[in-house]
Amino acid sequence: MARPRHPPSQTIVIKLGTSSIVHEVTHQPLLSTLSAVVETVVHLRAQGHKVVLVSSGAIGVGLKRMEVATKPKALSKKQALAAIGQGRLIALWDNLFGQLGQPIAQILLTRGDISDRTRYLNAVNTFKELLSMGVVPIVNENDTVSVSEIKFGDNDTLSAITSSMIHADYLFLLTDVDGLYTSNPRKDPNAARIDVVTSIASIRSQVSTKTLGSNLGTGGMETKLIAAEIATAAGVMTVITSSKDPKNIFRIIEYNNAFKSGTNTPLSGLQSGRSSPEPRAAASSITPTPSSSEESSLTSTPSLEGVSSSSTPFSQAARPPHTLFMPSTMPLRDLKSWTSHTLHPSGSVIIDSGAHHVLSKRESGGRLLAAGVLGVRGAFASGQAVRILIRKHRPGESTEASTGSDSTEGAAEGGGPSSTRTTYPDGSTITAPNTPEINPSASLSSSISTLDALPTVDEDMTPSTTLRTLPEDDTVVIERGVDATAEWELEEVGRGLANYNSAQIERVKGLRSSYIPQLLGYADSEYVVENITIRVPPS
Ligand code: GLU
């Protein structure tokens, strides 16, 4: 009899939300779910896989310990409960894993911990070491010291960043529903589960993510989409599935590996858009399954725009219920992923539309020359992360003449075009892409909208220019255009790492690189910003 072949070793991150760890009302630990997760992880380890667990639940366990009925609103109270609960949570995991002889480790992170490149690399090395020792690291946010500036905000984002740090093959977001649905399956009988997502940007318009999420957790489907965006951009296959049956993880891996290992597979067809056994899926972003049937991919599916029918090889094998987000075919390199998702930008560099066009091309290498810089906002040091903003006329008004089209070299990866616009009381606006800020609850848009208009005009600026303060002391100039009524708007299109400080870039802006040594007395680089990731391509 042939021995069963073990699949190749893969690195798997499994994220469990609070609703999968403690009961929503009694806050008692859900021991059967936790035990099933432990058995699954130990089994995956026995197959040679490396597994990291991202576990929420500290606050939930703390609530139970203190017999507090509902999650408090005050940050300090939540932090105190997390401090009470985290020790018990990790003790619980250690106890369960210990029964099966599996050592674990606790890793508590904040964004601040990994926003320095050296500390980030040290965290990566610790993960690597633990995994090579056969240990299962159990990660949570270090809630005690997390304040808005350094908070991941939710463990969906934390798990995505962890997956990208360790170059995981899979990220499993285990939750109380078995996938992403077109609408809330608890309320809408026509809600259809989406099997495969190839473009998160286009799927946003086709699903309603608002209504899902438990009372205890901080996530919901929107944070899962953001997590999927971060993880898939880093090349990680991301799965949403139910925490009720963690053993499905094997079936999901087997199911998707079976397709991956074949030639001309549905997966490769989906990724590349080439003709595949599932040709419509190759061109579309989602493949739905009706909520009413477990093996529903064998049944006909409702007709939606950009959705493939299920009479395909994908559906012929018994497909365990889940939504799979396909990884990017051109994953961001580690440094770029770190820059765009982990770092807190210290200021902004404003570029012209020509530079934006060039940076959007792969050949640019994501490097910006001084010639493409229009201005600098905020104070930042060399080596710090900066927002890349473009200046353009407000929609409906004349467009900015393109300048400095030769201002960049090399490439930047493109991103989703979705963005959030914030309008000030006087009507001026700034737009930012819909990517996670340091703390989603204190994101650029939500913070700015609470600021009052500044009535004064800065003396250093021309009378037609108004200064406004953004969070992190960033300052945005709203300039009046030539016709005195038109206004410029600044839009964040990406992020990068500054090679010079803000004052130095201000001095050399708009000039050829050959002026840098003359003006600054030295030239470390001919580029003022590097490792730029453009998330919003030019329109
Ligand atoms: N870190 C929080 C906790 O352990 C959970 C955050 C989340 O729900 O995503 O309770």
Automatic annotation (TrEMBL):
Keywords, comma-separated and alphabetical: Amino-acid biosynthesis, ATP-binding, Cytoplasm, Kinase, Nucleotide-binding, Proline biosynthesis, Transferase
Pfam families referenced in this protein's UniProt entry, alphabetically: AA_kinase (PF00696)
Biased composition (Polar residues): 306-315, 399-408, 418-440
An annotated GO BP: alpha-amino acid biosynthetic process
A GO cellular component entry from the record: cytosol
MF-aspect GO terms: ATP binding; glutamate 5-kinase activity; RNA binding
Domain Aspartate/glutamate/uridylate kinase intervals: 11-240
Compositional bias of kind Low complexity: 272-305
PANTHER family: GLUTAMATE 5-KINASE
Naturally occurring in which organism (per UniProt): Trametes cubensis
Keyword Protein biosynthesis: no
Name of the protein described by the UniProt record: Aspartate/glutamate/uridylate kinase domain-containing protein
Region (Disordered), start-end ranges: 263-328, 391-447
Keyword Disulfide bond: no
InterPro entries, per database record: AceGlu_kinase-like_sf, Asp/Glu/Uridylate_kinase, G5K_ProB, Glu/AcGlu_kinase, Glu_5kinase/COase_Synthase, Glutamate_5-kinase_CS, PUA-like_sf, PUA_sf
